[in-house]
Automatic annotation (TrEMBL):
The modification 4-aspartylphosphate is found at residue 62. GO terms for biological process: regulation of DNA-templated transcription; regulation of nitrogen utilization. This is DNA-binding transcriptional regulator NtrC. Member of the two-component regulatory system NtrB/NtrC, which controls expression of the nitrogen-regulated (ntr) genes in response to nitrogen limitation. Phosphorylated NtrC binds directly to DNA and stimulates the formation of open promoter-sigma54-RNA polymerase complexes. Residues 13-127 form the Response regulatory domain. PROSITE patterns: RESPONSE_REGULATORY, SIGMA54_INTERACT_1, SIGMA54_INTERACT_2, SIGMA54_INTERACT_3, SIGMA54_INTERACT_4. SMART domains: AAA (SM00382), REC (SM00448). Residues 149-377 form the Sigma-54 factor interaction domain. Keywords: Activator, ATP-binding, Cytoplasm, DNA-binding, Nitrogen fixation, Nucleotide-binding, Phosphoprotein, Repressor, Transcription, Transcription regulation, Two-component regulatory system. It comes from Zavarzinia aquatilis. One of its GO terms (molecular function) is phosphorelay response regulator activity. It is found in: Cytoplasm. GO terms for cellular component: cytoplasm.
Amino acid sequence: MAVPGVSDGNTPTILIADDDRAIREVLDRAIGRLGYHVRSTGNAATLWRWVSGGEGDLVITDVMMPDENGLDLLPRIKRIRPEMPIIVMSAHNTLMTAVKAAERGAYEYLPKPFDLKELTTVVQRALTLPKSPSAETNPLGDGDDKVPLIGRSPAMQEIYRVLARLMGTDLTVMITGESGTGKELVARALHHYGKRRNGPFVAINMAAIPRELIESELFGHEKGAFTGAAARSVGRFQQAEGGTLFLDEIGDMPLEAQTRLLRVLQQGEYTTVGGRSPIKTDVRIVSATHRDLRQLVHQGLFREDLFYRLNVVPLRLPPLRERSEDIPDLARHFLNQAVAQGLPAKLMDGEAMEFLKRYRWPGNVRELENLIRRLAALYAEEVIGLDVVKAELIEPEIQFRAGGGDEPVSLSVAVERHLARYFSAHDEGLPPAGLYDRILREVERPLIEISLSATRGNQIRAAELLGLNRNTLRKKIRDLDIQVLRSIK
């Protein structure tokens, strides 16, 4: 049977090492159906004997095997067979597993349980592409697990894989996600595990700096460049030279500063505010935002050419409600952190943990972290129960009634309570700037959706109900990607 992409007439041999017999049998059948020869083993010693003896064209190996860690075997294989592609599988799904696999020469890392179709596609791609030795990397060492990206959910696994692939590159990355999802943490991971790890990591939050000072903060200024500039000052670009510059809340950058930033990305140089001589710069740019930059581009608030320069590698961080299976690991991590900070050791009982998994987390991981800190500091119980968690998280029940009974809570009171909890989920009690537009956007979508539902998808009636022009409503439906379904009478 002919194998796509193989031109030498020989059928490639795939070497598989996994101590789980069932996985070996599944892979044997799936890869055999592609027309490849397959040899499989349950230990690292046999795999090493095959590879060192010149056998095989591609390796698929597990990490945890009875006689040796598969990650420790990778450098030995690469020393004697540098062109051999190695696919690493692991149920130990952490960022460090993905990063170490890439750092030690793996062609691809796949978390278990893996998608069989994806694995076979990776095998075919690895055998089809031109062979080239793996790029040399600077080993991280065993004690470098410093960035606490926690989670084993599929969403986090994909993030780990992307981070591992970016480790040896200088590509510009755009991190998007709601407030509190950990965007700066991911930016630090990109730096800490990347080729610029020995350089500085400098962060600047556009929303936290007066707009008129952003250019000076980024590029520095000369003495007398503006009122109050009593001395020359270096900017964040100079501070980050040779390292990574993290531009947080990039959507809040003024247009004038956007133009200067675009020049840096295009020409690799900038001038200080009030300066004339261009300064060469060598930094990696990582940006982040909770805002929809494409929408800002359409509104004329963000340069389209800058957007494409920054959005080379987009990385979306999921909100905590989309990866609720990670909450137990996160909660335990924050409880352990509290102990390290001198607070009493606590445990969370099963009912409390299940409640945390069902909660919506408007403040995302940051809200969970702050909750755990409060529980560790304020409650005497060694085991935190459901009643304690509910007391911290649940607002008084809001009732909307047509008449009679208890007095209903107004919408304004309900919103006020929601915002109070939202503010409390942020450090120093302040969420990122742009709250007004953000809250309006959050309200706008459900308002339009429920109006369309009430009018059975009739956009003319929905526009009348909302008091909007019909064309305005249609534009909002399109911009917000709202699905309009007409009910059948």
